[in-house]
Write a structure and sequence with these properties.
72 residues, mainly alpha
Length: 72
């Protein structure tokens, strides 16, 4: 019957709307996680660079000290 078909279509439409809402929420959560991970990665890269620069500074100073002691 026509009423049954309309009821079935309305039910399907409601299911699709709920699915769409759920997918939008999941998408937003994934975007937020992605942005948070990107910030963390950039922070870790900056920390690595700082430690590498520090390490190079120590290596240069050690080299200078070794040369000074050798000349003395």
């Amino acid at each position: 019957s026509l009423a049954a078909d309309e009821g079935s279509m309305q039910h399907k439409l409601n299911e699709l709307m709920a699915l769409c809402t759920s997918l939008q929420k999941q998408h937003s959560e994934m975007v937020s996680r992605f942005e948070a991970q990107e910030l963390e990665i950039n922070s870790l890269k900056a920390r690595i660079k700082l430690l590498e620069d520090k390490d190079r500074g120590v290596a240069v100073q050690s080299g200078d000290n070794a040369q000074s002691k050798g000349k003395g």
